[in-house]
# Entry
Amino acid sequence: MIPLDWMPPLMFGGLIVFMLVGFPVAFSLCALGFFFGFLAIEMGYFTMSFMQAIPGRVFGSILANELLLAIPFFTFMGAILEKCGLAEDMLESMGQLFGPVKGGLGYSTIIVGFILGAITGTVAAQVIAMALITLPVMMRYNYDMRYATGVLAASGTITQLVPPSLVLIVLADQLGRSVGDMYLGAWGPSLLQIALFAAWTFIVTRWKPDALPPVPRSLFGRALMVKCAWGIIPAAILIFLVLGTIMMGLATPTEAGAMGTIGAIVLAVVRNAPLTQFDRWTFGAGVGAAIVGSLIGAVAFKSLPFQIAFTVVFASIIWLCWRAWQVTELRSLIIQAFQSTMRITAMVAFILVGATCFSISFAGVDGGHWVEHLLTGLPGGVWGFLIVVNIFVFFLAFFLDFFEIAFIIVPMLAPVAQKVLTPIVGADAALIWFGVMLCVNMQTSFMHPPFGFALFYLRSVAPKEVKSSDIYWGSIPWVILQLVMVAIVVAVPQTVTVFLDKPHGVDPSKVKIELAPPPALDDNPPPIIFAPPPARN
# Structure
């Protein structure tokens, strides 16, 4: 007979053992959940009817969750943009703009990483694209190899924090908060992290003047302006369509992801397909009709103009997509994007089902109370809780990726975080702060050995002249910078809450609703007189 108090730590310990062995996490979670669930039933801690919550939650909370539909849309959008030439144009234009400055290629890589992160939301596409384009140029001009590999890997992981990050979408779902608020909370740390990376680049240029030499510029004047505009304006339009509609409440993340996917396909077609003049006029007329119709519909509060505009622009996009399908190279891009999206979506679905099996059994043996008692009893109060949680997540990221951490660990920590952090930032912002903090922390999982996937991506595309030791040693300063960012977010909650709505200053737990007593009944009420029905003719 195993005491009830021992069941939660045994489940958690079993999970750690499975992770160390290397067995697939989704199946490990299912096995642990069912094993300890049936063991608890045998010992009388709950009945078989309690386990019926597993299929109910799988079909009700997961498969019917519209928010999770945003994941395949953003994944597909990132896969399309990986091959359409957008990253190449942006890196070339930023390289021309900042090249003559010492460390200019480093600054341009950081800026492009930030912009691409706001478009693609996928680390693999970003690291591979930037490494293929920028690393040979850095090697040609004798950049310090450890800095070059480090800045490329770090700039690729920025996408974990910059909206529309998939991590933020998953965290919003697991914490029960809106994606728009999570995006607003992430902007402050995102900008601060860019500033930290740029500051480190500046320090390296002063510490080792020859490590990051300037690169001569080949474009000047109007040609430089056109190159920069062609590299930035399409990206800015796509960012506005995707993020602006979410944060202004005009569209759900799934709807915005669908719009971003259409925009990515159109961008790929315009950049790569041999379009005729008629195709360009068709697309231009469709976009113009959409803008004019949307403005008229917004002013007149009528939907008909918008519907007409949507029909026209949709028809023009279908025409462009048909033209793209006739190009063999673009068709093969699109097919690979579908395959990549299906793999990632299937992985997320299996992890979600496994995490559901584990969490139901964990809750049935009072695992939530065990976690709360463990974390609220730490020395140092709130700050002790934050420090321990961040250290725990940092080391857990050595073995788990962000999906697994979000689906397994975050649901355990969320109730305790809500209770502990509410006195500091208020009930509305507590979990937003906590979620963004974890997101900043989980960035390091892509950078630190032994399983830093950004380092693996970089190694797979780097020339043979680049040593693996340079890739690993070059990542250390950037991991330290990311940990500094974690410390800033922990110490200064305003970095997250500055863009959120101001709290109303009312504690919901102390709100009392008092109803006025009903009016007293009159002892002598007037008689009720029933009138006879009217006579029929």
